[in-house]
Design brief:
The relative contact order is 0.15. The chain has helices at about 25-30, 115-140, 150-155, 170-180, 185-190, 200-210; strands spanning about 35, 45-50, 70-80, 80-90, 165, 195-200, 225, 230-235, 240-245, 255-260, 270-275, 280-295, 300-305, 330, 340-345, 350-355, 365-370, 370-375, 390-400, 405-410. The strands form five sheets. The chain has a six-stranded mixed sheet. It is of the alpha+beta class and about 425 residues long. The chain is built from six helices and 20 strands. Strand 11 and strand 12 form a beta hairpin. It has a domain at about 320-415: Immunoglobulins (Immunoglobulin-like, Sandwich), CATH 2.60.40.10. It is about 15% helix and about 30% strand. The radius of gyration is 26 Å and the shape is globular.
Length: about 425
């Protein structure tokens, strides 16, 4: 079943409510950094209008050929992709947890009390919002359940107009200086301009400021989240070593970041019912659609210092260079030696390559065209093992090209016999 109750010190006493683990939620929406367009069932466009220089010397009798400047209209699209939440569970799981819901005599525990519904729905909603927050930022659309739609960074990396900053700096203060210098003067003082970075990177920046004795906050406080008057926003889903400066707002007229959903509060529209009239099983189900994009690449300034940068100097991905169209970045195996197949489609139709880290001896990979087969050794139960799940990194490449992606392969330990 989907619900597993874990409580090592449970003694059967009454619990009035379920304590759920707090998730960070969909931060990019909650912090008002992106404009969300509700009610989008099909493809929708973000209209863009560029103008050329128009001022010129005065003429007493201007002719058509004296016209200067033009209006260039273009569009960016938002094409929401379908995905869902569906989980089945048995409410009898909770018979031994809440005394007030335990059966009396021959009474069969068949109903899901409102208290349990509310608590489970709250936990489900938090988890969905947390996962959506990750997809909004780094999502990639593909064939697997982990590839639901393209996130902001994925879409921006395809825009050749993005401003790519290059710097050898290792300190966050120097990196922020380089990013600020590259921001177009027209938006440098815009009140909606934000610097977006990871929580870890801001912590480094904060430590650098604190180290300047007598000028900034002490070790007991946190420095203001800003650089040269530009507010810094941190997101849990944001990758380390990546800084972006762009216009962020929940208003369409002042934001460069957009998302489209078929309902603005999709993650709260939940169906709950019995699997069938004669069954004791219940299910939760949510049907959703979402997509993201940026409006103007020239208002998206990025410094990418990751080991495998998604943005390259001189613009986004080289349109002539082969890239991956889809493919899972995470592969979850079973505890036994059952192989798992994943397909990695490429933009030029070339075959792929696969290589496991040299220090991993429990996993083999085989390639057939674009299909990669992950075959593990069985992970037997070991009560002395320090980890219940082992992981390996596999590098997937494109034959004849430099493009690579890192795939994390996880295998859980077998349960105790």
């Amino acid at each position: 079943m989907a619900i597993v109750v874990k409580n090592t010190n449970y003694n059967g006493e009454v619990l009035e409510r379920i304590l759920t683990v707090a998730a960070t939620g969909n931060e990019i929406v909650a912090k008002g950094l992106i404009h969300v367009i509700p009610g989008v069932e099909k493809k929708i466009s973000i209209p863009r209008l560029h103008t050329g220089k128009m001022l010129q010397k005065r003429k007493e009798d201007p002719k058509v050929e004296d016209s200067k400047g033009n209006f260039n209209y273009s569009e960016k699209s938002l094409d929401p992709k379908d995905f869902m939440v569906f989980t089945v569970f048995n409410p009898r799981t909770f018979e031994n947890i809440w005394r007030k819901w335990q059966p009396k005599g021959d009474l069969v525990f068949a109903q899901l009390p409102p208290e349990a519904q509310n608590a489970l729905l709250d936990a489900l909603s938090k988890q969905v919002q947390f996962e959506l927050g990750t997809h909004y930022v780094t999502g990639v659309y593909g064939d697997s359940d982990d590839e639901l739609f393209d996130g902001i960074l994925t879409q921006a990396a395809r825009d050749k107009d993005c401003i790519i900053v290059t710097s050898d700096a290792t300190k966050q203060t120097d990196r922020l200086k380089a990013v600020r210098k590259a921001i177009p003067v027209a938006i440098r003082n815009n009140p909606h301009l934000r610097l977006v970075m990871s929580v870890n990177d801001f912590d480094e920046y904060d430590d650098e400021l604190t180290a300047r004795e007598g000028k900034n906050a002490s070790e007991t406080e946190t420095n203001r989240q800003a650089y040269k008057g530009i507010k810094i926003e941190t997101l849990a889903a944001w990758p380390d070593d990546l800084i972006v400066a762009t216009l962020c707002s929940p208003d369409a007229m002042t934001s460069n970041l957009f998302a489209a959903v078929n309902l603005q509060d999709d993650e709260h529209v939940i169906q709950i019912d019995k699997v069938s009239p004669m069954s004791e099983l219940y299910f939760f189900k949510m049907l959703m659609k979402a997509d993201t994009n940026i409006a103007f690449g020239e208002e998206f300034v990025v410094l990418d210092k990751r080991q495998s940068p998604g943005f390259v100097d001189g613009g986004a991905f080289d349109p002539e260079a082969p890239t991956f169209k889809n493919g899972a970045r995470t592969v979850n195996l079973k505890a036994d030696n059952t192989p798992v197949n994943r397909t990695y489609a490429t933009s030029n139709g070339a075959d792929v390559t696969a290589e496991v880290d040299s220090d991993v001896d429990w996993l083999d990979v085989d390639v057939d065209g674009n299909k990669v087969t992950f075959t593990p050794q069985a992970f037997a139960y070991d009560e002395n093992a320090s980890e219940s799940t082992r992981s390996a990194s596999v590098t997937i490449g494109i034959e004849g090209a430099d493009a690579t992606i890192e795939v994390t392969v996880n295998q859980p330990m077998a349960a105790q016999a």
